[in-house]
């Protein structure tokens, strides 16, 4: 009977080791890399890691290499299908070209979130909780 209960702990990651993974962090960064190790807190070690940014129909990658991620910062972890990875309908551009647009998108999103928080606080009585990166 116990074998029918799915893993709900970091033990569920055992099948993901040595596979290419996508990790979305609390601050919105999207990392692609090979999962090499993890622990009971879901801290992750990614190898050959790139950070991917998007704007419109373009993307760019920034090489990071070996990357250690604290488990509490992981919002999403998923395996990348290597057969479909190259079929994305986006064009790759140089990171330095796309970075200013990406930073502007982040600033615009933060301004919208601040405006929304202010309205919720002033008109609906919500509290001003949360800090940097808590809005996932």
Task: Please give a structural write-up.
By secondary structure, this protein is of the alpha+beta class. 22% of the residues lie in helices and 35% in strands. It is built from 1 helix and 6 strands. The chain has a 6-stranded mixed β-sheet with strand order 5-1-2-3-4-6. The longest helix is centred in the last third of the chain and has 30 residues, at 95-124. The radius of gyration is 18 Å and the shape is globular. The mean pLDDT is 87.
Number of strands: 6
First and last CA, distance = 36 Å
Major sheet details: 6 strands, mixed
Stretches with pLDDT under 50, minimum 5 residues: none
Query: How many helices in DSSP terms?
Result: 1
Instruction: Give the neighbour order of strands across the main sheet.
Output: 5-1-2-3-4-6
How much of the sequence lies in strands comes to 25-35%
